[in-house]
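Course assignment 3, question 2. Fill in each field.
Student: A.L.
Task: Predict the tertiary structure for the chain below.
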Amino acid sequence: MSKTVEFYFDLGSPATYLAYTQLPKICEQTDSQLVYVPILLGGVFKATGNASPATVPAKGRYMFIDLDRYAKRYGVPLKINPHFPINTLVLMRAVTGMQMRHPERFAAFVDCLFKALWIEGRNLNDPATVGAVLSENGFDPEEILALSAEEDVKSALKDTTEKAVQRGVFGAPSMFVGEQLFFGQDRLDFVIEALS
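Answer field:
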C-alpha cells in the first residue's frame, strides 16, 4: 500500500458520516490505507472563522436535501438528527482516547456513535443517552467518560485539531492524499482519482 487517505473527522457532521460510509470501500478498491484523524470541528470553525452551513437557513435546508440525495446514491441509511447540532467535545475526546488506548475497539466505537447520530437520530447532547448507546454496544460508559477526561487525551485532540488547521483544514470531512486536500463528501471522486 503506497497511498494513504488521512480522514479528518468529527462525529457531529452528517457529511462526514456519509464520507465515513464510503472511504473504507474506496481504500479497498485502490489498495490504499485509511488513517482516521479525530478533530474537534467546533475548534476548527473557531480557528478559521468558518461555520456550519446549517447556520444559514436556506443553505441548511438545501444541505439536508442534498445529503439525502447522496445517501440514496450510496445506498446507506441517513436520518437527519432532530437534535442537530451536537456538541461533540466529550465524544471526540472519547474517540481520541479509544484510538490511543484501545485501537482494537476504535472502529466499533466510532461506528456505534455514527449510527446513533445519523441512522437512529439519538440525542447525543444528553449524557444519559450517550451512556445508553455505549452500554447497548458493549462499552462501559463510566470508563469512556474517565478516558475522555484524561489530560493527555484532551491534549491529543487539541493537537490534532490545531495541526489540521495548520494544514489548511476548515471543515469536515477533510481528506488528504499526500499534500492534496479534498473537502466534503461530495469530493470523493477526486480522492479516488488521486489514489488511482
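Instructor remarks: The chain has one domain: 3-195. The chain has nine helices and four strands.
Grade: pending
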